[in-house]
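Morning!

This is the sequence you dropped in the shared folder:
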Amino acid sequence: MGITSKNWPTLVKISIAVLVYIAVVFTVSRFWQQPNLVLGISALLAMIVISLKPNRETFTAFILGGLLGSFTESICIHFGAWSYTSPQFLGIPLWLPIVWGIAAVIITHGVSELLR
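The structure's back. Tokens below.
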């Protein structure tokens, strides 16, 4: 598949999604001691990644990914598998559901594009 004017918008969206992923990893890694800052930046990054394909599938992936990912981590934390240094609710930071939601959207869109 070569780069053509027809697939240019898709390549731009994929590039933005990759940049959002990098920004999330950087934000969490660099500012984990400031959970409210991570929460705010993650919320902005979530809006960006959701805006790439604002439809029911995207919103469903974001909500389910955020809820299920965080719930699963809470269970693991409860049983002692690991812990966060700055937990705020149910053993997890408040920003974690947003980060899980972003991951779910990026994975959902990535798989969708690969299978096209």
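Headline: The radius of gyration is 16 Å.

More detail when I'm at my desk.
O.
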